[in-house]
């Protein structure tokens, strides 16, 4: 029995030692693309966008080799929990419900959401009566999905999409009356077409965007928090932000 206890103790010590030895020199980061301008593929197929550039700057700051893993939004938290990757840096809004499953970094940006529709649609999105029977597009499982479902779910047909690209295609194809999504995404994918416009005012939704980690990986989260703070202070964050936005999204 004593030998068994000693053997088990040695195994536990080895396991704890292995966990403590994690140096995070290699980090896998999940991203759902396309979600322009935050993450999308350039014409040569390489990943680019605000969060890609910012994530690469974070990795340089903490001296880690980072690999970007493309993952559909629907399975992005399950993929993290099953150790398919170590972090999610993909415009994930910090919510109380998600915080029960993952550990969030400090918020690193926040943008409003906006309504987008074809010019002349004459929609009043704040008026439930005028929205009755309309087909509204949202990206599935997002704060915008929650907002539309809560505010208008009883009078409109909510159509949910896996990607923002599919949502935009159905709007321009006439299969949707209006869509609700992150304003910068609509700005760069919808109203670049002069046949479309924003509807009403932008709407602040949520508490900001954070990097998501497994709850046990507090050390990794601390590394990201310190790096993001440094990048905000030394001007790197601002330089990256101005590459993609004409307004301030920093928090």
From TrEMBL:
Name the UniProt record assigns to this protein: ABC transporter substrate-binding protein
Domain Solute-binding protein family 3/N-terminal residues, every copy: 26-248
Coiled-coil stretches: none
SMART domains: PBPb (SM00062)
Any Pfam family matching the protein: SBP_bac_3
Domain of life (superkingdom): Bacteria
Naturally occurring in which organism (per UniProt): Alkalimarinus alittae
Major place of residence: other
């Amino acid at each position: 029995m004593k030998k068994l206890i000693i053997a088990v103790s040695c195994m536990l010590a080895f396991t704890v030692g292995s966990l403590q030895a994690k140096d995070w020199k290699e980090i896998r980061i999940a991203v759902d693309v396309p979600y322009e301008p935050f993450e999308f593929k350039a014409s040569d197929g390489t990943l680019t966008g605000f969060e890609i550039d910012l994530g690469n700057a974070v990795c340089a700051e903490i001296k880690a080799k980072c690999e970007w893993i493309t993952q559909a939004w629907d399975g992005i938290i399950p993929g993290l929990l099953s150790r398919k990757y170590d972090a999610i840096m993909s415009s994930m809004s910090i919510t109380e419900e998600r915080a029960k499953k993952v550990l969030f970094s400090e918020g690193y940006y926040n943008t409003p959401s906006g309504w987008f529709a074809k010019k002349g649609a004459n929609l009043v999105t704040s008026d439930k009566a005028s929205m009755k029977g309309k087909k509204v597009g949202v990206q599935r499982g997002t704060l915008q999905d929650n907002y539309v479902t809560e505010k208008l779910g009883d009078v409109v047909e909510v159509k949910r999409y896996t990607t923002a690209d599919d949502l935009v295609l159905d709007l321009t194809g006439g299969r949707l009356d209006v869509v609700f999504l992150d304003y910068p995404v609509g700005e760069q994918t919808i109203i670049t077409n002069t046949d479309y416009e924003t509807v009403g005012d932008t709407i602040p939704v949520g508490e900001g965007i954070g990097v998501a980690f497994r709850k046990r990986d507090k050390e990794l989260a601390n590394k990201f928090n310190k790096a993001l703070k440094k990048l905000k202070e030394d001007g790197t964050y601002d330089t990256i932000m101005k590459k993609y936005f004409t307004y301030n999204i920093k928090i």
